[in-house]
C-alpha cells in the first residue's frame, strides 16, 4: 500500500506543479473533490480494516506477554524486563502513508464542504472592478445565495435568491468556463440594456449617475473620472476614461448575439431568459458582456460580498456593494 500511496500522492503533486507552471489548465474544484474522495477511501479503510488489524496485533502481543509472565511466575521469577510498551506503540502507530491520507481526510472534507456550499475565497487579479474592488483584494463569495449547486459540475439542486441588478457576482467565464470572472449584474432576463456614450440605460430609463471627486489609481498612477451610479437601492462607484472611445471594439461571436445592436455610440442588448448582462465598474477597462456576451444561469458561482484581506492595504477589509 505504501508504494500505491506514493504514486497517488506523486500524481497530485505533479498535477499541481503542471498547473502552477501553466502546462495544464487547472480545476481546483475537481482537484479538491478527488482529494476528498481518495482520502475518504483511506479513512474508511483505516477505520474499518487497518486500525482493527493493528489493535488485534496489540491484543495478541499483550496476551503473549501475559502468558510469558504467568510462566515465569510459576518458575519463581517475579521481576522481568518489560519492553512491550514500546512494541505496542510501534504496532498501533499509523504508517506514513495513512498519516498523509486518512489523517488529512477530516480537514480536506471540511474545506471541501465550506468551499462548495457556503463560502469560497477569491483573489482579484485585475482592475476591471476598480474602484469597488482593487487588484489583490482577497474576497469571500456566498455560494448559497443564488441557490445550492453541486460542486465540479455546478448543477443547481436548490433555488434561493435570483441575481438582482447591482449585485457583484462571480461566474464562470462563458468562452472559457474553467476561468472565474467577477463583474456587476446590470441586466437580468427580459431587460433591454443600453450603454451609449458611456451612459447606462435599463428598459429605457437612464440610471442615476452623479459625479464624484476623481479617483487616483495607484497602480497606473493616473486619475480617472469617478461617478456614483444607482440601481434600485444599490449605490456604487464607477470609473470612466475620457481617452477611451464609446464604441465597443473587438467583439466576439457569442450565443444570442442577434439580441445586440452595436454602433459607434456603444451597444444595446435584449437579455434572453436564463441569461445575465455583466459589466465591470471600471467601465472603460473591463472585458465584459459588451465584448463576449451574456452569462447563463448555469455559470453562476456566487455573490461576492466581503473583502477579508488585502496585504498591501488593511483598510480594504470590510463588506462592499
Concise account of the structure shown:
The chain is of the alpha+beta class and 321 residues long. The chain contains six helices and 18 strands.
Judged by helices, strands and strand pairing, the structural class is alpha+beta
The average pLDDT is 91
Quote the distance from N terminus to C terminus: 52 Å
Secondary structure tally, helices: 6
SSE sequence, one letter per element: HHHHHEEEEEEEEEEEEEEEHEEE
- Which stretches of 5+ consecutive residues score pLDDT under 50? none
The CATH class label of the largest domain is Mainly Beta
User: What is the domain tally?
Assistant: 2
CATH architecture annotation of the largest domain: Ribbon
Provide the helix percentage. Answer: 25-40%
Radius of gyration (CA) equals 29 Å
So what's the overall shape?
elongated
State the fourth-level CATH superfamily of the largest domain: Umud Fragment, subunit A
User: What does the main sheet amount to?
Assistant: 8 strands, antiparallel
Chain-wise SSE layout:
Elements: H1 2-20, H2 28-74, H3 84-92, H4 96-99, H5 105-117, E1 119-123, E2 138-142, E3 148-149, E4 156-158, E5 168-172, E6 180-187, E7 192-196, E8 199-202, E9 205-206, E10 208-217, E11 222-231, E12 234-240, E13 260-263, E14 266-270, E15 275-279, H6 289-292, E16 295-296, E17 300-309, E18 318-319
Antiparallel strand pairs: 1-2, 2-17, 3-4, 5-6, 5-17, 6-15, 7-8, 7-14, 8-9, 10-11, 11-12, 13-14, 15-16, 17-18
Helix pairs in contact: 2-3, 2-5
Amino acid at each position: 500500500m505504501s508504494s500505491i500511496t506514493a504514486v497517488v500522492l506523486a500524481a497530485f503533486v505533479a498535477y499541481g506543479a503542471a498547473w502552477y507552471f501553466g502546462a495544464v489548465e487547472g480545476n481546483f474544484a475537481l482537484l479538491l473533490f478527488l482529494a476528498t474522495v481518495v482520502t475518504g477511501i483511506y479513512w474508511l479503510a483505516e477505520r474499518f480494516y487497518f486500525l482493527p488489524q493493528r489493535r488485534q496485533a496489540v491484543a495478541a502481543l499483550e496476551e503473549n506477554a501475559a502468558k510469558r509472565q504467568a510462566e515465569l511466575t510459576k518458575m519463581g521469577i517475579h521481576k522481568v524486563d518489560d519492553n512491550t510498551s514500546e512494541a505496542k506503540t510501534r504496532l498501533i502507530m499509523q504508517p506514513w502513508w495513512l498519516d498523509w491520507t486518512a489523517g488529512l481526510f477530516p480537514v480536506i472534507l471540511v474545506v471541501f464542504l465550506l468551499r462548495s456550499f457556503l463560502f469560497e475565497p477569491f483573489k482579484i487579479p485585475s482592475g476591471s472592478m476598480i474602484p469597488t474592488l482593487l487588484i489583490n483584494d482577497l474576497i469571500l463569495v456566498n455560494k448559497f445565495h443564488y441557490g445550492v449547486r453541486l460542486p465540479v459540475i455546478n448543477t443547481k439542486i436548490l433555488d434561493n435568491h435570483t441575481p438582482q441588478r447591482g449585485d457583484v457576482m462571480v461566474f464562470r467565464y462563458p468562452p472559457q468556463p474553467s476561468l472565474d470572472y467577477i463583474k456587476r449584474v446590470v441586466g437580468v432576463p427580459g431587460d433591454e440594456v443600453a450603454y451609449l456614450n458611456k451612459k447606462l440605460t435599463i428598459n429605457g430609463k437612464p440610471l442615476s449617475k452623479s459625479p464624484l471627486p476623481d479617483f487616483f489609481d495607484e497602480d497606473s498612477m493616473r486619475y480617472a473620472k469617478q461617478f456614483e451610479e444607482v440601481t434600485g437601492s444599490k449605490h456604487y462607484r464607477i470609473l470612466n476614461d475620457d481617452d477611451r472611445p464609446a464604441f465597443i471594439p473587438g467583439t466576439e461571436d457569442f450565443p444570442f448575439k442577434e439580441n445586440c445592436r452595436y454602433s459607434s455610440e456603444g451597444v444595446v442588448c435584449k437579455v434572453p431568459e436564463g441569461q445575465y448582462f455583466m459589466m465591470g465598474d471600471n467601465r472603460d477597462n473591463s472585458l465584459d458582456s459588451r465584448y463576449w456576451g451574456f452569462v447563463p444561469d448555469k455559470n453562476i458561482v456566487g455573490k461576492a460580498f466581503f473583502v477579508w484581506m488585502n496585504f498591501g492595504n488593511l483598510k480594504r477589509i470590510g463588506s462592499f456593494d
